[in-house]
């Protein structure tokens, strides 16, 4: 066996050439992130309406009027015919119909699954013309003087009223 006594040569370190990854390999993480955002957005778009539907209550709005009425409910209300899906809380409900005073009221939707509210619309006043023979009579409606005849197009609310005429005595 021979023993070598060669001195150790120092090794030199040389840089290697840089080679970037191909374009397809670098695009893959962005594609995965985009898919995650699309998937997350789709889950959110599905989850929010489902959360609303599962936590909402059914409210039936009945309007008492001789003609069909239009109903509107404030806030997030999903209409289904004469019913609305609402979350529990306070809401403004408005109803309008031709020939009736508009009505706006506040309602409270509670925790019951199905609820109902009835709105009674008051008819608009009728227009009345009053003439007397001879003219000049004082007209009193429900204790309030309206004027002296002839009176034209007086707005009078529907319903029973007391009508009184007072005329000066005529001497012949």
Short description:
The protein has 172 residues and is an alpha+beta fold.
What does this molecule look like?
This protein is an alpha+beta fold and 172 residues long. It is built from one helix and twelve strands; from the N terminus they run H-E-E-E-E-E-E-E-E-E-E-E-E. It has one helix spanning 23-55; strands spanning 57-64, 70-73, 78-80, 83-86, 89-96, 103-109, 114-120, 126-130, 138-141, 144-148, 151-156, 163-166. The chain has a four-stranded mixed β-sheet with strand order 3-4-1-7. A hairpin with a 6-residue loop joins strand 5 (89-96) and strand 6 (103-109). The longest helix is centred in the N-terminal third of the chain and has 33 residues, at 23-55. 8% of the residues are buried. The model has no long low-confidence stretch (mean pLDDT 85).
Helix proportion of residues, in percent? 10-25%
Strand content: 35-45%
Radius of gyration: 42 Å
Mean pLDDT value: 85
The main pleated sheet reads as: 4 strands, mixed
Question: What characteristic shape results from the CA principal axes?
Answer: rod-shaped
- Number of distinct helices: 1
Layout of SSEs?
Elements (H helix, E strand, L loop, with lengths): L22 H33 L1 E8 L5 E4 L4 E3 L2 E4 L2 E8 L6 E7 L4 E7 L5 E5 L7 E4 L2 E5 L2 E6 L6 E4 L6
Parallel strand pairs: 1-7
Antiparallel strand pairs: 1-4, 2-5, 3-4, 5-6, 8-11, 9-10, 9-12
């Amino acid at each position: 066996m021979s023993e070598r006594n060669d001195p150790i040569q120092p090794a030199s370190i040389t840089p290697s050439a840089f080679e970037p990854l191909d374009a397809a390999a670098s695009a893959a993480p962005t594609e995965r992130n985009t898919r995650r955002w699309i998937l997350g957005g789709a889950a959110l778009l599905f989850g929010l309406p489902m959360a609303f539907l599962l936590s909402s209550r059914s409210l039936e709005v009945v309007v008492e009027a001789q003609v069909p009425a239009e109903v509107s409910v404030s806030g997030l209300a999903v209409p289904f015919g004469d019913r609305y899906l609402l979350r529990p809380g306070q809401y403004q409900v408005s109803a309008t119909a031709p020939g009736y005073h508009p009505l706006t009221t506040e309602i409270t939707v509670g925790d019951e699954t199905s609820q109902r509210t009835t709105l009674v619309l008051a008819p608009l006043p009728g227009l009345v013309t009053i003439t007397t023979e001879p003219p000049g009579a004082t007209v009193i409606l429900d204790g309030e003087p309206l004027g002296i005849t002839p009176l034209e197009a007086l707005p009078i609310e529907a319903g029973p009223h007391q009508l009184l005429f007072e005329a000066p005595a005529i001497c012949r």
